[in-house]
Amino acid sequence: MCFDEMTLADGEVRRVYSKIARWLANTPADRLSSRRAQAELLFRRIGITFAVYGENDSQERLIPFDIIPRVMLRSEWAALEAGLVQRVKALNLFLGDVYSGQEILKTGRVPSDLVLQNPQFRKEMMGRRVPHDIYVHIGGIDVVRTGESDFYVLEDNVRTPSGVSYMLENREVMMRLLPDLFAEHRVAPVENYPDLLLASLRSVAPLSTRGEPTIAVLTPGRFNSAYYEHSFLADKLGVELVEGRDLHVDDDCVYMLTTQGPKRVDVIYRRIDDDFIDPEVFRPDSILGVPGLMRAYLAGNVTLANAVGAGVADDKAIYTYMPEIIDFYLGEKAILNNVPTWRCREADALKYVLEHLSELVVKEVNGSGGYGMLVGPHASKAEIELFAAKIAKDPDNFIAQPTLALSTSPTFFPSGVAPRHVDLRPFILTGKNDIRVVPGGLTRVALKEKSLVVNSSQGGGTKDTWVVDDKIFEDARQTQGSMQDQSAVA
């Protein structure tokens, strides 16, 4: 039995959803359908789309949007936020260490081969300090809920985490379509995310920067599946969206072509993976990057967000050591727990996983987007046998986790409202002097009944995430009590 975020086991509606429940009870299904159709029309006009690589039909598609928001109390969010800040702080310290003294590897708290043989480990970064010692400027930490106060981190996304444009557009659409319901909840804002991101990026400009830093968003181009988000963020930040061909390096400084001539760039919010960012250092066949960019970066003349080499901390095998990493660098117990995980590289764990594949979720260490994954309880016998052979051939490349009972949130369908499993991707910004978490994040929802896969590439959708003030429910309770007292006196 999974935790339903709106309705308790006895049928009682949780107080945080009391206003939503009343709204649903008073709103005819055809009106909800109309609102959903309006939302889809708005998204089409805005142009918020994504593409799925490898499909014969490569047309841009809308991510399905659910009109019913996911709601959390501010008190619930506060505990989650503290855990996210702690985690990103530890990840930055971990990355700074593995590219310098490697103290955590010397102690054996994290196996050396998991780092040094990791395909995302960049030896070019060894002994090099990044501006302000920040590696993870923008983090997207995937979180799942299994109970009233039980949150687990599913994975850490610290290379080029995506999805923030959907968070912002979902909010804008909800404010347009349901202004009264929105106002009634006193929802914490997310629309200031671009301002927070811009301030964070400005704060990490190189020490050599003179005056106001020049910032640019570096995209692989319009054929990238997340290109909409790249252009959206550049527009919201008020900075230039550039491709590799728009930049060049001269005397170890990066310049951008403009109508007024070359302009020096101080901070690059890059949405290109390490392998393609500089053909002089990484893939020589890359036409997406900037020749000489790494020279400018290692000379300290430009900041790259996120840092080159941060992908080591994006690895699902490293993820399993996060409690040890937090303890090693911060001397603290992890506020947010990991999902219990079996490392198939370990003999006992491998034996257990192969014997219980039908019960487990198995993931490739470097997989993403819901690909390279087996959901045992929903897999066929043939799929399980195929995965068993893959794991046996290369056990180091896999981890396994129990099939968590992900929480469900009410979701609208033409046939009515039904619970569907959800996860949450909050976005964490690290600047020179602080770490900020935007209250809410991107809720992803598995639209297929009983499915646990929320990724858009696998048929999932999104919801707006509302973090609301506890006080509005206390006020409502007091008002109701006062009305009852007046009625009794009358």
What's a quick, concise take on this entry?
This protein has 490 residues and is α+β, with helices and mostly antiparallel strands. Helices cover 34% and strands 19% of the residues.
Query: What characterizes the major β-sheet?
Result: 5 strands, mixed
Shape: globular
Measured by DSSP, the beta-strand proportion falls in 15-25%
- Overall domain count: 1
- Estimated helix fraction: 25-40%
Distance between the termini: 46 Å
**Strand elements, count:** 22
Radius of gyration: 24 Å
**Low-confidence sequence ranges:** 53-58, 478-490
Strand order of the largest sheet: 11-3-2-18-19
Structural class: alpha+beta
| Number of alpha- plus pi-helical segments | 16
| Overall residue-averaged pLDDT value | 91
Describe this entry's structure for a reader.
- With 490 residues, the chain is α+β, with helices and mostly antiparallel strands.
- It has one domain (15-339, 404-476).
- The protein is 34% helix and 19% strand.
- It is built from 16 helices and 22 strands.
- The strands form 6 sheets. Strands 11-3-2-18-19 form a 5-stranded mixed β-sheet. A 4-stranded parallel β-sheet has the order 5-4-9-10, covered by helices on one side.
- A hairpin with an 8-residue loop joins strand 13 and strand 14 (373-375).
- Helix 2 (29-46) packs across helix 6 and helix 3 (74-98) crosses helix 13 (322-330).
- The longest helix has 25 residues, at 74-98.
- The chain is globular, with a radius of gyration of 24 Å.
- It starts with 17 loop residues before the first helix and ends with a helix.
- Mean pLDDT is 91; it is low at 53-58 and 478-490.
